[in-house]
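[recover] target loaded
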């Protein structure tokens, strides 16, 4: 098992309890095809990282929508006028894919995710994120929080970019879990939201509920598009809070996917 972290000065690797550090290696190298095993001799022993930043370099972040049945139901509920389009895309051959974030809008573990001031209904979306190199190969995984302004998208599906793309709307972390093998379908995704120390929302799903295979989503993303620095792809959410729930400033969103770890972010 190998996990990659970064801070402002270096890249860290955790391998079987051992911590290694390099100031010269970059995350971008992994996304352009370098295998970490071939450069580990250039790393030096180090103490564990204390404050990891998002495991991202120059990558775009994309996302898939309506890939879980629960997400289909929720999107239909929020969009009374155009509810049938979510039903159609759930069953369609072509998935819904949309641009989510540039690197500078992404926050890491412990940093604040943001709810828009012009949105009245805001939710976190706990998702598995695929790390994809420029050749279109999945080589790792991290945890993603695809913050969503449901009142904006619910008003009109064409407002999706405004509901999804803004500063602090995407969290990734705490690390990049490196693996050539797919995660088991039994992998659990758990979400918890606390407010003043009390749990106000929680849920759990697994990759068994993901309708589309990760490789299928990647194949559509790479049709007629190139990613010189690789990319991340969020695979959709199967955990949707009740319609009465909305995030508030000061909430804390915690998402856990083993063996990756836990991503935690306060809300502003």
């Amino acid at each position: 098992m190998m996990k990659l972290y970064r801070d402002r000065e270096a890249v860290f690797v955790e391998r079987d309890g051992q911590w290694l550090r390099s100031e010269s290696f970059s995350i971008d190298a992994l996304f352009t095809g370098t295998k970490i095993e071939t450069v580990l001799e250039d790393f030096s022993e180090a103490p564990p990282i204390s404050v990891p930043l998002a495991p991202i370099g120059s990558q775009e972040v994309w996302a898939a929508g309506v890939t879980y049945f629960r997400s289909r139901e929720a999107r239909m509920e929020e969009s009374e006028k155009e509810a049938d389009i979510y039903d159609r895309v759930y069953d369609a051959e072509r998935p819904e894919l949309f641009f989510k974030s540039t690197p500078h809008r992404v926050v890491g573990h412990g940093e604040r995710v943001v709810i828009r001031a012009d949105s009245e209904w805001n939710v976190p979306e706990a998702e598995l994120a695929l790390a994809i190199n420029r050749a279109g190969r999945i080589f790792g995984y991290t945890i993603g929080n695809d913050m969503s302004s449901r009142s904006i998208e619910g008003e009109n599906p064409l407002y999706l970019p405004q509901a999804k793309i803004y500063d602090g709307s995407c969290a990734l972390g705490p690390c990049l879990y490196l693996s050539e093998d797919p995660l088991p379908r039994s992998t659990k995704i758990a979400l918890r939201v606390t407010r003043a120390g009390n749990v106000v929302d929680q849920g759990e799903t697994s990759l068994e509920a993901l309708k589309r295979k990760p490789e299928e989503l990647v194949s559509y993303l790479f049709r007629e598009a190139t990613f010189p620095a690789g990319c991340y792809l969020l695979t959709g959410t199967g955990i949707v809070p009740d319609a009465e729930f909305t995030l508030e400033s000061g909430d804390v969103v915690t998402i856990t996917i083993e063996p990756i770890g836990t991503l935690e972010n306060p809300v502003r």
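[recover] notes: Residues 86 and 175 are 32 Å apart (CA to CA).
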